[in-house]
Design brief:
The complex is a heterodimer of chains A (677) and B (124). Chain A is of the alpha+beta class and 677 residues long. Chain A is built from 21 helices and 7 strands. In chain A, helix 6 packs parallel to helix 16 and helix 16 runs antiparallel to helix 17. In chain B, helix 4 packs parallel to helix 5. Chain B is globular and about 35 Å long. Classes of the chains: A alpha+beta (677), B alpha/beta (124). At the A-B interface, helix 16 and helix 17 of A face helix 1 of B.
């Protein structure tokens, strides 16, 4: 089947039958009086459907009204439908470029899923409740395929008819499937594949015949077209009788359903058939029928629905009938019309090609721009990524350097600190020695004063005694001798006193020589308690005090330098004995001097408590008791170093020395040692 | 002449009595001993009319020698008696304070009794 058989297919959804039922004047009146909005759109649609296959100019006008109404009211889907309707009429008028532009607008709307959200106006005479956007998309693809058909692009028309049919299947809307198959039949026939064409066309026929109440009228409208196509297909398959049967069926169906476009094409086919057969009357009859229909369709410039071809066939029919006047007349008309239509068609196709070419260019440019943009973006991202990496590297490097610097600084600071600490310890020792020197200067001068002066006095006394002996005054000499003995005792006493002070000083300033070892703290405390008691008894045989101990067996052994801690315990016990002895001198009724020594393990630490019920420490003096040379004892009885040294020793053991006291009632010294230090 | 010796060391009494045994025997000097600043003030209050030379240690428990000096010179006795302070060797701080408080003379420990006798001589 040649190109000349190609024709506009009227494959839209409108139900002409319904439109026929209405008087066109009342439809137009309804449109004129309809308020803006869905009603105006619907009434415009009714008029459009009436004209759709009857008159292209009128149909285009009402499609434009649909379009304007939808756009004004921002109903996107309806706007898309109106664009497709416009496109159909434009391509029917041969204005392919305009038709393509309209379709492009429709595609933009149909492909945007955002448009599913809105409440789309019903744009078909049969209400549809499914996905209206997809229905529009199917409709748009179908129309695009038709445009491809008009502009003789076989490949593209098959692709888009198939897409339209596929979407129709997905949304289960049979008229779309039927129309897609109808056109696919023709497309395959044009591709010289009559078997495939027959398959699709038969499917289309079957679908149309099975139409339900809702789709019946629509199916009927295009059933005539299907039958005409089947006629074409059987023609290609060389089955002339079956072909004719379908042409006649189509003639009836198209007439019944007022599908004039298809009707003209059936007339054209029958005319050609009879011309070929040399049937004079029949060919003239159909050629004139064809011309009449074409004339009512309005301005047409399609490949088949073409007034020029109509005139040509009338001319050929008159010629066959030997009516040369008429033949001549129509020959002239055919030449003029065909020539003008050909010019228009060439112009339209050129315009279309220019558009598609510029569209292609535009798309190419767009693609180029897109690629360039993507490259640009990619480059920027790469640069940005590199920049970030470089920045990160710099930051890490800098950070690392800073850390390294900081590390060096910290190490330096640590070394400095260690050196400073050692210096501090040294200067503390020196300061301590200085303090000791001053303290010793004070403390040692009193006993030295006596030692020196009593020894000098004794020298004088001895001289005197010798004189008395010379004179024979033995009584006097004896008295002097007694004085000398008394003085010697004083010398000895004060000499020892000085010795004690010096020893205390040495003890205070000495570096620890003892080694730490695991020590039974209970045994140590007990030992020093007895030492202290007997020491006191030796000095003062009137001394008595009750001692009470409470040792915690759970302590076991702890790691300490035993002689140091022993010294501390001795000092504390000595102080306690001294305190209770002093209080006893006050002759308080019922006072019983008591000293307690307790040990206890608490939270991994060991507490040694030495408590006495002596006079306690006045609150204002509590802060001073750890100072070197501070003592509450009368001159000669204390060096004031005991607690100071004790504190140093305990500190060196990582422990604590605390005191609890109430003036006149008690004093309790608490040594807290860690089990390990 | 009466000399009031103020010192917390009990042995001072014995030392002075032996050192000045001749002067005491001759009745040239009479020593009174106070073993604290407080005791010294009690004595001075009780014997307000007597001319006394006071010889005081500084480092004493309770009222210190400096405190005693201050009281004697500023509050109690008019005309104030001569006060001689005994300071430890090299104790410049106490020396300066005592001087500012009106101490008349100074001795350093250990006490040089020969020097002390020379100082006392013009007074009897």
């Amino acid at each position: 089947m040649g190109i000349s058989f190609k024709t506009l297919l009227l494959l839209l959804l409108p139900v002409l039958a319904k439109a026929q039922l209405n008087n066109i004047d009342s439809l137009k009146a309804a449109f004129s009086s309809a308020p803006d909005g869905p009603m105006r759109f619907k009434t415009a649609s009714n008029v459009y459907f009436y004209y759709q296959e009857l008159n292209r100019d009128s149909a285009l006008f009402y499609a434009e009204q649909q379009f304007l109404t939808a756009k004004r009211n921002q109903n996107k889907i309806a706007e898309g439908v109106a664009s497709v309707n416009k496109s159909y009429q434009l391509m029917g008028l041969g204005r392919y470029a305009m038709a393509l532009k309209s379709l492009q607008q429709a595609f933009v709307i149909a492909e945007d899923e955002q448009n599913e959200k809105e409440d789309a106006w019903d744009y078909f005479l049969t209400p549809y409740q499914g996905n209206k956007r997809l229905l529009l998309l199917s409709y748009t693809h179908h129309m695009y395929a038709l445009l491809m058909l008009q502009t003789e692009n076989l490949e593209q028309q098959i692709i888009h008819f198939k897409i339209a049919g596929q979407i129709g299947k997905e949304i289960n809307y049979t008229p779309r499937i039927q129309l897609a198959y109808l056109n696919l039949g023709q497309s395959y026939l044009d591709s010289n594949k009559p078997d495939s064409a027959l398959y699709y066309e038969k499917e289309a026929e079957r679908t149309a015949l099975q139409a339900n109440d809702q789709t019946f009228r629509l199916a009927k409208t295009y059933l005539g077209t299907i039958e005409m196509h089947l006629g074409d297909i059987y023609q290609a398959l060389d089955d002339q009788p079956l072909s004719l049967i379908y042409y006649y069926k189509s003639l009836q169906t198209c007439t019944a359903n007022n599908n004039r476009t298809s009707l003209s094409r059936v007339f054209l086919r029958l005319c050609k058939y009879h011309l070929n057969k040399g049937n004079k009357d029949s060919s003239l009859f159909y050629s004139l029928k064809n011309l009449t229909v074409l004339q009512t369709l309005g301005m047409v410039a399609g490949t088949e629905t073409n007034l020029g071809i109509g005139y040509e066939n009338v001319y050929l029919s008159y010629k066959l009938n030997n009516q040369f006047d008429s033949a001549f007349k129509y020959q002239g008309l055919a030449l003029i019309t065909k020539d003008s239509f050909t010019k228009v068609r060439i112009r339209n196709l050129a315009e279309f090609q220019k558009l598609t070419y510029s569209e292609q260019l535009r798309l190419q440019n767009l693609e180029k721009e897109k690629v360039a943009y993507q490259n640009k973006v990619r480059t920027y991202f790469l640069l940005a990524g590199l920049g970030v990496l470089l920045l990160l590297a710099t930051v890490f490097y800098w950070n690392n350097r800073q850390k390294h610097k900081a590390k060096i600084k910290i190490e330096e600071a640590y070394e400095n600190l260690k050196a400073t600490q050692q210096q501090l310890i040294q200067s503390e020792k020196m300061a301590s020695l200085g303090e000791l020197t001053a303290g010793i200067a004070h403390e040692i001068q009193n006993p030295l004063n006596f030692v020196n002066n009593f020894s000098e006095v004794n020298k004088d006394l001895l001289v005197e005694m010798k004189e008395e002996i010379k004179t024979g005054n033995l009584t006097e000499a004896n008295a002097i001798a007694d004085d000398i003995i008394g003085n010697e005792e004083k010398i000895n006493y004060h000499g020892k006193r000085a010795d004690a002070i010096v020893k205390g000083m040495l003890q205070h300033s000495r570096s620890t020589k003892g080694q730490s070892e695991l020590t039974d703290i209970n045994a140590l405390a007990d030992e020093y308690l007895r030492l202290a008691y007997h020491g006191f008894r030796a000095k003062d045989n009137s001394f008595t005090a009750t001692t009470k101990t409470d040792f915690d067996d759970k302590i076991g052994t702890i790691n300490i330098i035993p002689q140091d801690i022993g010294w501390v315990i001795l000092n504390l016990i000595n102080n306690a004995f001294y305190s209770v002895t002093e209080k006893k001198k006050q002759n308080i009724q019922g006072y019983e001097p008591t000293v307690w020594v307790n040990t206890k393990k608490i939270n991994g630490k060991v507490e040694i408590r030495v408590k006495d019920n002596g006079n306690g420490i006045p609150q204002k003096l509590v802060g001073k008791i750890l100072q070197p040379f501070f003592t509450t004892k009368p001159s000669g009885q204390g060096t004031g170093l005991g607690l100071s040294i004790s504190y140093d020793i305990i500190k060196a053991h990582g422990g604590e020395l605390k005191v609890e006291t109430r003036d006149g009632e008690y004093a309790e010294f608490i040594v807290i040692l860690q089990t390990f230090y | 002449m009466k000399v009031l010796v103020v010192d917390d060391e009990q042995d001072v009494k014995m030392l002075f009595e032996q050192r000045f045994r001749k002067e005491i025997r001759k009745g040239e000097l009479e020593f009174i001993f106070a073993f604290s600043g407080e005791d010294a003030l009690v004595y001075l209050n009780q014997h307000a009319q007597e001319a006394v030379l006071i010889l005081s240690d500084i480092n004493m428990p309770g009222m210190s020698g400096l405190e005693l000096l201050e009281r004697i010179k500023q509050k109690y006795h008019k005309p104030p008696p001569v006060v001689m302070m005994i300071t430890a060797y090299g104790d410049a701080q106490n020396y300066d304070i005592a001087k500012s408080l009106g101490a008349d003379d100074f001795l350093t420990k250990p006490v040089d009794f020969t020097l002390l006798k020379e100082k006392l001589k013009p007074n009897y």
